[in-house]
Amino acid sequence: MADDVTTEDPEEFEKAEGSVLNDIVHISDGLDTGNLITAYSSGIFPWPEDDEMPILWFCPDPRGILKYSNLHVSKSLKKSIRQNNFTVCTDTCFDEVIDKCAFQKRAGQPGTWITDNTLAAYKDFHKAGYAHSVEIFKDGELAGGLYGVFIKNVFSGESMFHTHKDTSKIALVVLMTLLDQLGITWID
After folding, report:
1. Helix ranges, 91-166 (H)
2. Cβ neighbours around 10 below 10 Å, total
3. At CB < 8 A and 24+ separation, what contacts does 179-187 make?
4. 147 phi and psi, to 5 degrees?
5. For the segment 13-66, what is each residue's pLDDT rounded down to a tens digit?
6. 95 phi and psi angles, rounded to 5 deg
7. Average pLDDT, whole number, for the chain?
């Protein structure tokens, strides 16, 4: 961790008893490495609406997790993996991955939670060593990937994208395999 990083008081992020605000535990004016470290260390994550509004911070109960043992790999995805016509990397082009995640078109959604301020904050978070990416290249071009946060042996998946069939799913399988090798059996 960088020496110049400061964190917010963890009590700022404690969940209010009887909260009726859909698991919102904190509101802040911005994102930075310090408040991201504090939040993720406490199981809390931001969900910005846009760059003009305050940041809402969430700690849902119950929590959605994906256990490695429950990851279903379809026959067609297994075939794509077996064809091995891609290159897998980690943390080689984080900025490009998060940029592509921010502009990935998603059915039924008008946009994404990844605002300009979010992009800047998570790029700094990556430079500080907490945000990571898995990249899938096809024919030398970034074709899919994902990014998330790794703190206290917990990986919190944030977003993924693909420009070629199955590449974001392959990134997820790669991530889960890497985490399993570390003894980590689920992602948030």
Report:
1. 94-102, 116-127
2. 12
3. 179/68, 179/155, 180/68, 182/153, 184/153, 184/154, 184/155, 185/67, 185/68, 185/69, 186/65, 186/66, 186/67, 186/68, 187/65, 187/66, 187/148, 187/155, 187/156, 187/157
4. -140, 160
5. 554 444 445 688 888 888 999 999 999 999 999 988 777 788 889 998 888 899
6. -60, -40
7. 86
Q: 175, 155 in Cβ contact below 8 A?
A: yes
pLDDT at 96 over 70: yes
Instruction: Give dist(CA 32, CA 61) in Å, integer.
Output: 25
Contacts of 89 (CB under 8 A, 6+ apart): 134, 135, 137
Asked if 63 and 43 count as a contact pair (C-beta separation under 8 A), the reply is yes
What letter would DSSP give residue 38?
H
What distance in Å separates the CA atoms of residue 45 and residue 82, rounded to the nearest whole number? 35
81 vs 169: CA distance, rounded Å: 10
Half-sphere exposure of 91 (CA within 13 A, CB side): 12
CB 12 within 8 A of CB 37: no
Rounded to whole angstroms, how far apart are CA atoms 7 and 128? 13
- In whole angstroms, what is the distance from residue 34 CA to residue 9 CA? 10
113-169 pLDDT, tens digit each: 788 999 999 999 999 999 999 999 999 999 999 999 999 999 999 999 999 999 999
Mean pLDDT of 71-93: 92
